[in-house]
Amino acid sequence: MRATLLYNPAAGKVRTTRTRDIAEVCAVLAAHGYEAEVVATTAPGSAATQAREAIANGATHIFACGGDGTVHDVLQGMVDEGSSATGPALGVIPMGSANALARHLGLAMSPLEAARQQMAFAPRSIPVWEIECEGRRRYFIVMAGAGPDGMLVYKMMTAGKQRLGRLAYYGRAATIFASRRLPSFDLQLLESGSGKRRAMCSVGAIAVRIGDLGGLFSGLAGDGEVHHPHLQLIAVRPPGWLSLPLWFAMGWLGMGRWNPLVHRANVDEFTCTPIDSCQVHLQADGEWSGTAPMRVTLVHDAVRLLMPVAPR
User: Fold this and answer.
1) Rg, Å, the chain Cα set
2) Which structural domain range is residue 11 located in?
3) In terms of C-beta density within 10 A (0-12 exposed, 13-18 middle, 19 or more buried), how is residue 136 classed?
């Protein structure tokens, strides 16, 4: 078996031990029969091309070593609708700030322990979701959003995200929500199961595939799973100055499902279209993805993810 470890030299806050952590992960892989190659990403988005090159060179496993942004970039180079049943497996070594997917999989936040755990995991074909906007396509595995979270990620691109981690998000989020009028947009969704189409006006839409986004955002998602063939969509209705604080407050109190200004639904697809000339920012897995209009659809059995054999 051949494994490629793609690591982000700029991910997370503690970088002084990165070389040691990578070496320890390689030792774990070698002890389990892997021939491991370590490859550093060279620029934002380079992991996609580097993952494709590793697969072309015979890698059976690709380990994304970093945060959710690194996993997101690696994913872009691994999605192949026609070969997921036999294609390379995606593993996650948490070395970022949030590590939402790693936490969802029950992985320890220690890179060494996470590597050991995954030696007992098995690859499972899962769907991913495709965003179409501005003539481009991106895939996401954890979550995507339109509105305030998209604006937040856009503003963070040149701010202190790497230096402050989650604290940077919290401070910038408070500033945005307190000082900006959030534009409304048209949200169209196709509900899973019933096939019913619904339209509504929204100031924020978040599509999640995991049950807990962690940190300040704990309790705001639901009971999603990455292998589910649907998305859990959370639509926040106007006015944003009331609905967004209420969403946070009721979520923390465990009362989110009774919020009259939030609509939750399992969906097969959805679209976001600006109203008038308002700019609506988008994000996927914590990475800025452009501006609306956008369409989100399912890609079945898109990638094999290393997951626990038994339910958590």
Assistant:
1) 19
2) 2-120
3) exposed
| Cα(125)–Cα(139) distance, integer angstroms | 15
Domain boundary among 97, 120, 143: 120
Residue 250 domain-assigned (yes or no)? yes
**CA 19 to mean position of chain CA atoms:** 25
Nearest by Cα to 288 from 157, 135, 99: 157
Selection from 284, 94, 289, 301 nearest residue 208 by Cα: 284
- Quote the CA–CA distance of 90 and 55 in Å, as a whole number: 11
CA 65 to mean position of chain CA atoms:
14
As given in the structure block, the two tokens for residue 165 are: 């981690």
Tell me whether residue 303 is in a domain.
no
Residue that the structure tokens 């990455």 belong to: 226
Nearest to 165 by CA among 228, 219, 109: 109
Question: Is residue 17 situated within a structural domain?
Answer: yes
Amino acid at 85: A
pLDDT in tens, 183-212: 899 999 999 989 999 999 999 999 998 877
pLDDT digits (tens, 9 = 90+) for 223-257: 678 988 999 999 999 988 788 888 777 777 777 77
Locate 162 and state its tokens: 């790497």
Please name which of 139, 113, 144 lies closest in space to residue 127, comparing C-alpha atoms.
139
